[in-house]
């Protein structure tokens, strides 16, 4: 049967104007393309005969359609069109993952998906679609690591966690590393109900199992016995206690009326971006400060403990990086990013779901802002080489 161009146009117009007509036309067109592609395949591969069709779901104009994908007996035929549809499915999965990672609930993700693609998914379907993303995050969190890191920042944040039908605050440990090229990398995110030096030693040891052999410096808060855990796992690493924490703790000892005055004194004691004072000299200044005020504020006495010299380790490094290593601010910012997303999501059903969300946030940070090297850190390696040469001489 032969039709004129005008008759074909009228026929297509009538179909398009009918109910679900646009989808039907698209479905017929795609099926025809794939059938034609199989015909070309048979011409190039003699003996590979037709072997019926298999169904493949796709979406068009906001509605689902069933495509008839041609098959061949030898199974060597694969329509190019399916690669396009597969790429589209992958893009949609990435969209769902991206929206969830930014704090939207599964219900909100479904609403956005329906608005864009015209298909509604249940919470369970959204969770299923993110199965590949969960596996991707899990693999990333267990990946092999580099052998040497210039700096490790370690810190735990506490998140309300549902476990055994009850909810309590549990610790989520994060380790952020500076690689030799100066770029940052989140090495580990793990869950422990509490925080303690023994647990931190366990996590530092797990880094060694994943390939880490040496660390130049580890920055942490003043957790009791944390220095012992670090010395056990990486005995050659220097240790920096967070200056922001000790300054905050010292100020808390004084009444509000004196904090402005005391704050100025602390700025002088914990000077940064300077070569004018050594770590030992700065610690002696802290001890003098404690001696000056401890008669009136006896709780200050603990700040003159010898372990507190670790608050001044940053003074052993070039001034250009002192501001970046004298606190755990970088990992604190990452903790705030975690909590911002978790707060938007509300209650999480399990520790695994929290780790998935935190891991996805860390992955995005690493692929974006963390991938740019902080060139000042290269001075650490130059200093290390210089010290090695001096020892050898």
From TrEMBL:
Coiled coil: none annotated. Signal peptide: none annotated. It comes from the Bacteria. GO terms for biological process: DNA transposition. Pfam families: Transposase_mut. InterPro entries: Transposase_mutator. Required for the transposition of the insertion element. This is Mutator family transposase. It comes from Chryseobacterium salivictor.
